[in-house]
Amino acid sequence: MINLTTQKLRKNAIQFLEQNPKQRLQTLKLLGIGRYKFLTKVKLNEANIVCIMRFFQNPQQLKFPNLVSADLSDLVLDEVNFIRGNLTYANLQRSSLVNADLLFVNFTKADLRDADLTGATLNETIWLDALVEGCQFGQGIGLTQLQFQDLKLRGAKFTHPNNEN
């Protein structure tokens, strides 16, 4: 049996995802987490219901975005701040994260196929088993040489000529 707190969190998450972006932003601000404006764009589906439940569970203690298994596919998230975010198993297919702050992000087993990370800051990121085929990295700012080589072997695209060594 699901406890009542979980049922209420789930109901609140669904209601949030049924709102329009303006209403969602108002809700986030009321909870003190208006800085996570990108949540106004996510789709209503099971993966995102669970994700929103985590955000709503204890918003006062929320420091870094926990986006494990979130569906962020096909979204424009340019200049988003995901610093220290956990995007393990997240779906970022075809999403735009141009000039995003992605320092210390964990992309373990995330799907970034055909995503655009041009200009994103990627220092101290983790890419274990991430799907990166067709992902645009531009210069690959902050990647180590080993990460650059590994990602390129897995199909990532780098557009800056200095990365051709």
UniProtKB/TrEMBL annotation:
Out of the domains of life, which is the source? Bacteria
Q: Which InterPro entries match?
A: 5peptide_repeat, Pentapeptide-BTB/POZ_domain
Sorted alphabetically, which SUPFAM superfamilies does this protein's record hold?
A: Pentapeptide repeat-like
Q: Name one Pfam family in it.
A: Pentapeptide
- What PANTHER family does the database record attribute to this sequence? BTB_POZ DOMAIN-CONTAINING PROTEIN KCTD9 (PTHR14136:SF17)
In Swiss-Prot or TrEMBL terms, this protein is called: Pentapeptide repeat-containing protein
Taxonomy, top ranks, is: Bacteria, Bacillati, Cyanobacteriota, Cyanophyceae, Nostocales
